[in-house]
Design brief:
The protein is mostly helical. It is built from 23 helices and no strands.
């Protein structure tokens, strides 16, 4: 009993000690930040609140104001911003790339926070148009904070980030759509407006395809540079692989290179890429071939032939679709034919891709394959409709026979009833 009381007494002494230790640890972990205490009460642009900074990826990784600005945030007097405390104050614009690169170029340091993050951003920046102009003393060009923000940096995976796929084009436009800011650089300022009309932007915003191209997809991010005339096709080929392979087989490649024309964008444009249609092979306002070729020349004839073939296959597929649709609505089983129709549509897609070779014989191969399938599925649809008609005739005949039997049965019953009701019959006598 005595021993138990001693143990209990010891435990009662240990518990307060443990609580005090935990409290002390919590105090050390939540050291006061006089930076935020002060700047949280200032007016913009000097105002930085604790709530705002808590959303920053640096704060979430445990970095503080002093990590960039120096000083001692634990002090509440002017010594916090002394040279002895390493205070840097406001980071000048011409210091920003090197300051960010001090950490982000250090693989050993960055591995503690994000082992998968690249550490060549500063080196890439120095190769970019922005970086080269920056070294020459042009401080108007974009530096790290212009794209990533300052005290509210978020990773690209965060939809609120300035560099998320949904927002990065607008981030670039803050400079590149400002005619006054871009004056003197000799480049257009309508890129963002054109991009907003493009099939790429529609895929990104309407269909939610975050892999759709935005500015960095074609121009790069830290190593931002406009694609050269000879490299445009390589940029487009990152996504449009088969089109690029067909283009390499065409006479256009050599002709465009000889004339100094930038490949794909000659027909498709760059920022305002529109939905490609067969009409681009036509002779109307959407046509692209006749911008260069003369009516009646060999290329014009090839263009007309390919357009005719594409139109023929597209019409055949639509006719078969309508036939199968009617049969399906009539309750006929045409699922196998529907699957075969997908193959016909694939042939049409391949033919449209093969146009980039500008070889009519290659396009014709895909067209004929699709026409064969479309003719087969149309015949299957017609057979299904013929079977439907036979079933309907059989059903009509069966119903007619049944109706005749019912009428005959009714007449027979009535005859029996009339016979039994006549005088002198056994039933009447009773």
């Amino acid at each position: 009993m005595h021993t138990w009381q001693n143990d209990n007494s010891s435990r009662s002494l240990i518990l307060p000690i443990v609580i005090l230790c935990l409290c002390a640890t919590g105090v050390r972990a939540q050291a006061p930040s006089t930076c935020l205490d002060c700047h949280g009460s200032l007016d913009p642009p000097l105002q930085i609140t604790a709530a705002q900074f808590s959303q920053d990826i640096h704060a979430q990784k445990g970095l503080t104001c002093a990590s960039c600005h120096g000083g001692d945030p634990a002090k509440a007097d002017m010594d916090a911003m002394s040279k002895a405390a390493g205070f840097r104050g406001k980071i000048q614009r011409n210091q920003i790339p090197e300051l960010c690169g001090h950490c982000h170029s250090d693989g050993t340091f960055m591995r503690k926070y994000n082992p998968s993050l690249r550490t060549d951003q500063l080196a890439q920046f120095k190769t970019s148009v922005h970086g080269k102009r920056f070294v020459q003393g042009d401080t108007k060009v974009a530096v790290c904070i212009d794209c990533h923000g300052v005290h509210d940096l978020r990773p690209a995976s965060d939809p609120r980030s300035k560099i998320s796929p949904l927002n990065v084009a607008q981030t670039c436009s803050r400079c590149h759509s400002d005619a006054n800011y871009m004056r003197g650089y000799g480049i257009p300022t309508d890129q963002y407006a054109n991009y907003n009309r493009s099939v790429h932007h529609e895929a990104m915003t309407a269909r939610g395809d975050l892999s759709a191209p935005t500015c960095p997809t074609c121009h790069g991010n830290h190593g931002a540079a406009p694609p050269g005339v000879n490299s445009v096709k390589n940029v487009c080929a990152n996504c449009h692989v088969f089109q690029a392979q067909m283009y390499d087989k065409s006479t256009h490649k050599a002709a465009f290179q000889f004339a100094g024309l930038p490949g794909c964008v000659v027909c498709h444009r760059n920022h305002d890429v529109s939905v490609p249609t067969d009409a681009k092979l036509g002779a109307g306002p959407e046509a692209v071939c006749m911008r260069c070729h003369r009516p009646g020349d060999r290329c014009d004839q090839a263009r007309a032939k390919m357009l005719q073939d594409l139109t023929q296959l597209d019409s055949a597929i639509k006719t078969a679709d309508r036939m199968l649709g009617i049969a399906e609505a009539s309750g006929m089983e045409v699922s196998e034919a529907r699957t075969e129709q997908d193959q016909a549509r694939d042939s049409l897609t391949k033919a449209r891709v093969t146009i980039h070779s500008f070889k009519t014989e290659l396009v014709e191969e895909n067209i004929q394959a699709g026409l064969t399938i479309a003719a087969k599925t149309q015949a299957e649809g017609q057979a299904a409709l013929a079977e439907r008609d036979r079933r309907r005739r059989g059903l009509g005949l069966s119903l007619g026979i049944i109706l005749v039997v019912l009428i005959g049965l009714r007449l027979y019953i009535r005859q029996i009833e009339n016979h039994s009701s006549k005088p002198g019959t056994a039933e009447s006598h009773d």
